[in-house]
Records
---
Amino acid sequence: MSDSYNKFIADSETKSFDKTHRATLAFNISKYDAAVVRGKEQYSNLELAKERGAHIKNKVITDLAKYLTDFEAAFQAKGGKVLWALDGAEAVKEVLKIVKKQQATHVVKSKTMVTEEISLNEHLEKAGIESLETDLGEYIVQLAGEKPYHIVTPAMHKSKEEVAELFNQKFGMDANSTPEQITAFVRNLLREKFFNADIGITGANFLVADIGAVCLTENEGNALMSMSFPKVHIVIAGIEKLIPKLGDLDLFWPLLATHGTGQNITVYNSIVTGPRQEGESDGPDEMYVILLDNNRTEILAHKNQRRALGCIRCGACLNVCPVYKSIGGHAYGTTYSGPIGSVITPWMRGMKDYKHLSFASSLCGSCTEVCPVKINLHELLLYNRNDSVKDGHASRFDKTVMLAYKTTMGKRKYLDFFSGKTKNSSLKKFFASNWGSRRELPEVAPKSFKDLWEERREGKK
C-alpha cells in the first residue's frame, strides 16, 4: 500500500474518534444546511437551473480548446497576458519570473484553491517573498500552519474559541476575543498589507470566453483589494473554469452562492477584463492569467470522468458526504477533499497513490443529488474504481478474492460445496482483519436458502 493510503487510514481513524472535532464540524455544517434551505427559496424551478448549468459546462468541456483560445484572444486584446502552464512547476516558475521582474518582496493573495494545489505560498516563501492570505479563513489556517479544511470554508474545523486562542498566541489578543473583535483586528492588519503589496494574486471562479473576463465572487472584498491596489495582478486558474459568455453569469453566480453559502448572491462580484485602461483610475498596470493544466487533460481524456471538470467548487458535496463529515478535510491529504476530490485527485496526482479515495465512499448518492451542475459523482467514483483495476493497481489479494468470488458465485454447486461452518471459518481467517476490529463479522447461516427451500418442499409432499 502507498504511504498516502496508510496516512489516510491513520488520520481517518484519529478524526473519526475525535468527538470534539466531530462536534465542531457538525455544528458548522448545520449552519450551512440551514442557510442553503433558505437560499434555494429564490428558485421557482431549481432543477431547471441545474440542468441548464450542467448543459453549459458539458458544452465547454466538450469543446474546451475552442473556448480557451477564444478567452486568450479576447483577454490579450485588452492588454492582458496569458501564460500556459502544463503543471504546477511551470505555473510556479511563471509566477517567480514575474516576481523577479517586478523586484517584488510582498504579495497578497485572495482565497484560491488552485494556488494551494501548486503549493505557491511555500515556493514564494522559499524565494524570500512574503505571501499573505487575505481571506479571513485562509489567514487563520495560514497562521496555524495548516492547509484549508474545506473548498469554501478553510477554517470550518475550528471553533471560535480555538481561533481566539490562536490569535492570543500569535498576537497577544485576549483569549476570550469575540469573532467580531478578531475580524476587526485582521481587517486593520491586512489594510496596510494591501496598500504596500507589490503583487496581488487571485484565482478565478469563472473565465468568460467571449469577452476575455476573469470573474471573482467573494464575501469579504479581499479579492477586490488584492487586484486593485497592487501594480501587478496575477490570476491562476484551471483550464476548466470557462463559461461561454457574460450572460451565463446570470445563471452561475446564484447557483454558486446558493450551494456554497446559502446566499442569493455573494457580497462582492467582480468582472475584470485586463489591466487598467487609459482614463481609468483604478486597477493594475499589468495583468497576467496563468492557465493551469496540471493533469486536467488526463481527466478530460476519460469520457465519463470528464464530467467532473464541470465542478464550480461550491463545496456542497462535501457538506452532505457522510465520509467527509466523519473524517474531515485534512484526512484526505489532498487539496480537493470530499466526493469531488475523490473523483479528480487520482487522475491529478496519480491513481497508484490515490486510488483509495475513490473507495472511501458510501456511494449513497447524496453528492450527486446536491450538485448544482448535476455531476454524477457517486457513479464517477465507480468508474474510477473500475479504471484502477484495469490499470493494474489492484493488489494480488484483491485479484485472488474476486476470482474466487466470481468462480464460486458462477455455479450453484460451487456455492453449496462448503458448509456454513466452513464458510464462517474462512471468513474469519481471510477477511476479519480487513473487516475491521470495530465491526462484527457477519455469519453465514448453517443452511442456505436452497437447503431451506428444498426442506420445505419435502415437507409438503
---
Amino acid sequence: MAKDLNKVMLIGRLGQDPELKYTQSGVAVVSFSMATGSKWKDQEGNWQEKTEWHNCKAWRNMAEIISNYLKKGSKVYVEGRLETSNWEDENKKKHYKTEIVVDEMIMLDSKGDNTGGGNGGNYSSTKPAGKPASTTTDDDLPF
C-alpha cells in the first residue's frame, strides 16, 4: 500500500513579526508570513527575481518559541505540512486558505545579527520548549 506524503521545507525570511494568540482553552497559536525568492536569467540574459509569500502557523510550545525568538526579517528554516481551511462569507462565496503548519524550525541568523532574532537554535514541536536540539551553522546544512 502506498503512503501519502504532505511535507514542506522552506528557507526564507519573515515578512512580519509573528502574531501570537491563544485559543479559548489556552493553547498558543502563532501566525506569520514568510518570503522565499528565486532568481533566473530570461531569454535576453537579464536577471529576473520573484518573491513567493507563504502563510505559516505553529501551535503550543513551537508557537511560543517562534513568538519569542523571531521577528520581521529573521532568516529561518521551517518544516511542516500544508493545511487548507475553507469557509463561506455572508454572500455564500467560498474562500480557501492554505497554510504551512510548522513542526520543525531552525533559526539561521547568527548571534548579534540585527536583521533577525535568531540564535541558530533548532526547535521541534516534539522536543521540550525552549531547549534547542542542537546548534547548527550554515556550513552544517546540506543545501
---
Amino acid sequence: MTLVIQSLNDFTIENYNRVAWGGEGVMLSPAAVKRMAEERRRFERLIEDPGVTIYGVTSGYGQNAKKRLTPEERKLHAKVPPVQSAASSGNPVPQRVVRGIVFARLANFIEGHSAITPAIAEAVAQMLDGRELAPVPARGQGGAGEILSLSHLFANFAENPAIAEKDLLSLINGSPAASALTADAALAARARLDLAAEVFALSAEAFNIPLSHFAVALEGLWNNRHDAWALRRLRELIGNGHGGARRPYQAPVSYRILPRMLGQAHRAAVMAEEIAAESLGAVTDNPVMLPADESHPDGEVISTGGYHNPHAVLAMDAVAAAAANLIVIAGRHADKLLNGAVSLLPDQLGLGNSTDYLGCLPFASAGYEEEARLMAQTTLLPGSETGGYAQNDVASPVFLSWTKQERVGALLEAALANLAIISLRALDLTSRPVPPGLNGLETAIRQYLPPLHSGLAPGPVAARIEAAFRSRVYGTSRDAI
C-alpha cells in the first residue's frame, strides 16, 4: 500500500508505524505539491531582496553566517554537497529507523514551511519505495542539530539537477531524527510493556500470590491511571488462576509493587507516544518559511532552534529508566521463585535433578540488571562546546538517548526470558495450569523449553526465547536488531 500525505495532520504515530515498521510507501498529494510550489515562488522572490538575510541561503553556514553571498555565490553555495558534515561513523541505526527519519523529514515540506523545490520533496518521498537506504550512524552524533546524521542520508541529493537555493539545507536541518527515534522508542516500549505484563503475570501465578494484591479497590486508592491500567491488565491475564488455595499471607515486595512498576512503564510509554506524536507533526526547519501576511506579502524566513528536541530525550530516558526497573523486578522474582523457603516451591526448581537446575539464571539476570543500570542514566546536554565553533555551542543528545533505551529494552527481553523459563517450570512442577489469558505466551515459550526432567541448558534456551520475544516486540518491522 501507499500512504498519501497532504498535511501535517498525516504525521501520526500510526502512519509512522505503517511506513517505518510496516514498509509502506509514501506519496505527496497533488494539493500538497501545489501548496509547496506556491511557497517556493514566494521564497524565490524573497531572496532577490537585497535587504533580506536568510541563513545558509543569502549568507554562509555556521561561523560564516555573517558573510553575505552575491547572487552568483548563492547559486554555487546551494549545490555544495554536505559530505563534510557526514563526519560520524559506526553502529548504524536499523533500517526501520532510517525509513522513519525519511518519513519525518517530509513534515517540514508538506505545507511549504521549508520552501523546498517540490521535485526534491517528491524525490524524498520516493526514497520510501522499498529500497535499501543509506546507513545512518548512531555513534558520534555530537552536532548542535542533526546535520551529521542527515548528511549521510541526503548527501547524494546534491547531484539532483532540480537542487536550488535552500534545498540541501532543508534536507539536513530540523529534527526529523529526533521525531523518528522517539516514535521508534514509543512503539517498542508499548510492545515490551505488553510482553512484560504477561511474563510478570505468569510469575505471579507461579508464586501463587494472593489475588488481593491486584484488587479492584486499589485503582481508586492509588489515584493513578497508569497503575490502574496495570492492575486491570494483571487481573485480565491471571483471572481466577488455578482455582485452588492461594498463599494466605502477603508475597514479597517485588510482587506487591509489581502493578506500580508496570504503571511506571505505562506512564513512560504513554509519554513517549505523546511526545512522538507532537514531534512528528511539528515544523522544525531552520530557517523556516512563515506564511504571508499584511506586513510580509511574500512571507518571512526566520532562524529558529527547532532542530533541537529535548522532549524526545526526556521521553526516551523515561522509557529506559522504566525498563531498567522492570529488569530489577524480574531478577527479584526469579530469585524468590527459586528460593524454596520463600516460594514454597522445590528449591532451585530442580527437584533433585541436576539436569534441570535453574539456579544460575538469576546470575545472568544480575548481569543484565547492572548493564541496564549503566545505560539508564539521565541524558543531559553535553558539557563541552561542540567542535569549538562559535554558533554550534550545544550538541543534541537524541541519538545517545535512543541508543541507551534500545539497549535497555533488549536487556529487558533477556531478563523476561529467564523469568519466563523459571515461572513455567514452577507451574509444571506443581501441576498447576497456566491461566487461559497466558496461553499464547505459554505456547511461545514451550517451543523452546524441553519437557520436565529431560535436561535443560538454560542459556541456549533463554537465548531462543529472548529472540522470540524480540520478534514479538518488533512485529512487522523490516528488521529487529
---
Amino acid sequence: MPTVRPRHAITETDAVTAALEAAARKWPEDRDRPARLLAHLVEVGFHAIEVELDEKALARRRALEQLAGSLTGVYEPGYLDALRAEWPD
C-alpha cells in the first residue's frame, strides 16, 4: 500500500517468531498478516512502556513529596552567605 510514511524492515529472529506466534493466538483474525500482528505488538508494547514510565514518574513525585520540608531548619539563616564569604575571590 502506498504511503509517504517511513517503513521499517525487521528480521524474523527467534524472538520475533515467538512474538508473532503469541500475537497470532491473541489476534487470530490477523494470523496470516504478520505486519498487522507486528503493529498490534508495537501498540501493546508502547502502552506497557507508557504505563511503566508513568508509574516511575509517580513514584518519584511521591518520594519528593515525602521529603519536601524534611530539611527545614537544618541550615540556619545566612548559612550560604557565610559559606560563600569563605571562598576566595
